[in-house]
Amino acid sequence: MDKGLKIDEKVVILAIESSCDETAAAVVINGREVLSNVISSQIDTHKKFGGVVPEVASRMHIEAVSAVVQEALDEAGISFEDIDAVGVTYGPGLVGALLVGVQYAKGLAYSLGKPLVGVNHIEGHISANFIQHKELKPPFVCLVVSGGHTFIVHMKDYGEYEVMGQTRDDAAGEAFDKVARTIGLGYPGGPKIDKLSKEGNPEAIKFPRATFHEKDCLDFSFSGIKSAVLNYINKMNMKNEEINKADVAASFQKAVIDVLVQNAMEACKIKKVDKIAIAGGVASNSSLREAMIKAGKNNNVEVLFPEPKLCTDNAAMIGSSAYYEFKKGKIANLELNAIPNLKLV
Ligand code: KG4
Ligand code: ZN
């Protein structure tokens, strides 16, 4: 493959994302300017099963990927010849789903003679903040809260991370999805709990907040809250008492947000930084945003987050990360493979 590295002022990247249940493609210039950001969601199909069915996801990515890429180019008003590199998510995620994007991107890069850049999905989520906040530069602290991951990282420089805390069991988004299922709200649960919580009392039920006693430990645990909600529902059912779903949703949500905000602010104190970015699907939660802004004001920390469309899975964020990898000369070869449990560091 002709790597033809071109590092001038304008680098046009075609990015592809297929790690879970969205087939997405985007055209991004210099990691910050989005010319198109096309997302084909499979949610309506997976909804029927109460969660993502990996085999179905892979098949649907195969069906959608070519058309989604073409739409991204059309919307950007460019052709394949105009792109400088192809960026693609190669992990973490569902292996079959990732493979569709990776194989497609490899074929494309090879046939066009353009460089290929592999992107870590989590890093992509963090980079969504660079699209939203054009002046944002590392170092800063980032709270990553998605369906599969919950991390607090210190981003020292582009591509350089220190993990300061992470979940020891369920991810925050996973807890939202499981609790939503428990109270009969359906999939995906996060947005539904967010909405229903507005009608509930967050102080109505005391759900546990897991904290760890080791010094400077910023880890999380969400499986206890999930079980506590299940126990509460079972207890109420046994007593034949009516369950106020809005109160359950609001109280659960508050318990999760309390620990996220507390640990995130603590991380800023430890690193003596005055900027925190939030990333991942749960970053679109309206109460989390409000609580983070409030805590930020009290602690003199600027709180940043991407618009909701850039919080959940999309390819624009992958295009942003790919640019910084490209600039460092991190070009993949045709042996690039899907790595379902790819780590950030
Ligand atoms: O980042 P993402 O799109 O996919 C992963 O990489 O995992 O995150 C999806 C997760 C799901 O668990 C979904 O329920 C959650 O983000 N989510 C939300 C909200 N919107 C999406 N959770 C809470 N409140 C929301 N508004
Ligand atoms: Zn994601």
How would you summarize what this structure contains?
This protein has helices spanning 43-47, 54-76, 95-112, 121-132, 172-182, 189-197, 223-238, 245-271, 286-299, 308-311, 316-327, and strands at residues 12-17, 22-29, 33-41, 85-91, 116-120, 140-145, 150-157, 160-166, 275-279, 302-304. It is of the alpha/beta class.
Helix content: 40-55%
What's the CATH first level of the largest domain?
Alpha Beta
Spatial shape = globular
Q: Quick one: how many beta strands?
A: 10
Query: How would you characterize the largest beta sheet?
Result: 5 strands, mixed
**Coarse structural class:** alpha/beta
Mean pLDDT: 95
Give the topology string: H per helix, E per strand: EEEHHEHEHEEEHHHHEHEHH
Q: Order of strands in the sheet with the most strands?
A: 3-2-1-4-5
Organism: Clostridium grantii DSM 8605
Pfam families: TsaD (PF00814)
Main location: cytoplasm
Cofactor: Fe(2+)
Tell me what you see in this structure.
The chain has helices at 43-47, 54-76, 95-112, 121-132, 172-182, 189-197, 223-238, 245-271, 286-299, 308-311, 316-327; strands at residues 12-17, 22-29, 33-41, 85-91, 116-120, 140-145, 150-157, 160-166, 275-279, 302-304. It has 345 residues and is of the alpha/beta class. It folds into two domains: 12-127 and 311-327, ATPase, nucleotide binding domain (Nucleotidyltransferase, domain 5, 2-Layer Sandwich); 137-307, Nucleotidyltransferase, domain 5 (2-Layer Sandwich), CATH 3.30.420.40. Strand 6 and strand 7 form a beta hairpin. Helix 4 crosses helix 11 and helix 5 (172-182) packs across helix 6 (189-197). The longest helix has 27 residues, at 245-271. The protein starts with 11 loop residues before the first strand and ends in an 18-residue tail after the last helix. The mean pLDDT is 95. InterPro entries: ATPase_NBD, Gcp-like_dom, KAE1/TsaD, Peptidase_M22_CS, TsaD.
